Amino acid sequence: MRRLLVHIRTDSKGFTLMELLIAMAVFATVLLVATAGILQFTRVYYKGVTENNTQDVARTVVDLIAQGIQFNGGAVTTTVAGPTAGNSYAFCVGNQQYSYTTNYELNDNPNAAAHQSYHVMVVNNVAGCTASTPAQNVRLSAVSGRELFSPNMRLARMQVTNVSPNVYQVSVRVVYGDDDILTNPLLDTASCKSIRLGSQFCAVSDITTVVTKRVQ
User: Fold this and answer.
1) Using CA atoms, how far apart are residues 101 and 156, in angstroms rounded to an integer?
2) In whole angstroms, what is the distance from residue 194 CA to residue 102 CA?
3) What would the mean pLDDT of 132-150 be, rounded to a whole number?
4) Which residue blocks in 72-127 are alpha helix, DSSP H?
5) CA-to-CA distance for 100 and 160, rounded, in angstroms?
6) C-beta of residue 107 within 8 angstroms of C-beta of residue 152
7) Alpha-carbon torsion 105, 110, 47, 32, what sign?
8) Residues whose CB is less than 8 angstroms from the CB of residue 211 and which lie 6 or more positions away in sequence, other chains included
9) E strands in 15-130
10) What is the pLDDT of residue 3?
11) DSSP 202
12) Where are the beta strands (DSSP E) in the chain?
């Protein structure tokens, strides 16, 4: 009787330890590159959101003041030259008074040492508003009127100048970001530092327009 001989192959190949290590290294490299790409995409996205929000606030402020100068009757007073950061100032466009502070960041729980304030620019209706009408202290939480800025933003420059009879120039510089990511945070030249880390949380919008007063 013939015996059936079963031959078991012992030469089957599997993954060696070195091959596993190489595969893991390749996978880790791919994962690292993908993570870096996601982080970069996220940074660019939030940078765009920050810049758009900053531009929207600057444009809203300029448009509001410009329309008031054009179509509201009454006096238009000019702004203070070279205002001191943190102090409160005001100007009038008809019966609308704009009280503001420069170079202090809007924050719901302000830290004075970090140059933060409860308010940055508040517009309020004041009958018979003139240059001598006292400004509201926007550093305080209790003020009358509407806040025009969003959190983490500051007003680096606010200028309303009379360039000729019935013609005014309005110039606004809005800055988004904390002191530590800004260059010259207490000056009207405040700008974002040239850094990579945290750059998505900094933006500057600078708008200037010339307006003709149409209603006396």
Assistant:
1) 9
2) 23
3) 96
4) none
5) 13
6) yes
7) positive
8) 65, 66, 69, 70, 167, 168, 169, 170
9) 88-93, 96-101, 105-106, 116-117, 121-125
10) 54
11) -
12) 88-93, 96-101, 105-106, 116-117, 121-125, 146-147, 153-164, 167-176, 182-183, 191-192, 203-212
Structure tokens that stand for 44 in this block: 């660019």
Tokens representing residue 138 in the block: 């926007």
Q: What does the mean pLDDT of the chain come to?
A: 89
Task: Give the residue carrying structure tokens 């070195």.
Answer: 18
For 91, the 3-state DSSP assignment is strand
Whether 209 and 199 have beta carbons less than 8 Å apart is answered as: no
If you ran DSSP here, which 8-state letter would residue 114 be given?
G
Q: Could you give the angle at the alpha carbon of 56 between the alpha carbons of 71 and 66, nearest 5°?
A: 15
Strand order, beta sheet including 88-93: 88-93, 96-101, 121-125, 146-147
Please check whether residue 120 is in contact with residue 61, taking contact to mean a CB–CB distance below 8 angstroms.
no
Nearest in space to 153 (alpha carbons), one of 199, 112, 185: 185
pLDDT for res 2: 52
pLDDT over 90, % of the chain: 69
Q: Which of 47, 40, 6 has its CA nearest to residue 176?
A: 47
Name every residue whose Cβ is closer than 8 Å to that of residue 73 and which is 6 or more positions away in sequence: 94, 215, 216
